[in-house]
């Protein structure tokens, strides 16, 4: 894998994270989730009470969310070795990230409850957001691949 491939994966991850963030914001506006999960995670990581709002948490949450999405995109590109990504594989990757995070490490560090114990709206919004992440990631990476095939 070349550095270019990792950059392409990172770009795909950034674009996919932006699309996913739009789904999350729409879910918040619709009243399906009170606060963005990245804010909960950053809030818990910062000093002080883990449930209290903290100055700058919104910016830090956005940076952390994009950093995670960019890294996940680069990792996917690395694992796929630059091959075309079938849409179901991209969707599966997005959902695997959701399950590993929201049924695994996020409740493990007691930031949010596991999916099965969470409020009804948040898991649906987050699952939809991760499906969108996978679709957009696959689309962007496939466009890079199509460009290389020309």
TrEMBL record:
One protein family per Pfam: DUF6789
Keywords: Membrane, Transmembrane, Transmembrane helix
Residues passing through the membrane, by range: 59-79, 91-112, 124-144
Record-linked InterPro entries: DUF6789
Protein name as annotated: Putative membrane protein YagU involved in acid resistance
Organism listed in the record: Streptosporangium saharense
């Amino acid at each position: 894998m070349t550095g270019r491939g990792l950059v392409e994966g990172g770009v795909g991850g950034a674009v996919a994270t932006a699309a996913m963030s739009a789904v999350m914001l729409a879910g918040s506006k619709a009243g399906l989730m009170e606060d963005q999960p990245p804010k909960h995670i950053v809030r818990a990581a910062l000093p002080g009470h883990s449930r209290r709002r903290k100055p700058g948490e919104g910016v830090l949450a956005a940076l952390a969310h994009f950093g995670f999405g960019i890294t996940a995109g680069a990792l996917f590109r690395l694992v796929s070795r630059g091959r075309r990504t079938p849409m179901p594989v991209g969707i599966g990757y997005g959902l695997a990230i959701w399950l590993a995070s929201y049924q695994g490490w996020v409740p493990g560090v007691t930031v949010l409850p596991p999916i099965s114990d969470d409020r009804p709206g948040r898991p649906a919004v987050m699952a939809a957001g991760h499906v969108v992440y996978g679709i957009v990631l696959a689309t962007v990476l496939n466009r890079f691949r199509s460009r290389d095939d020309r």
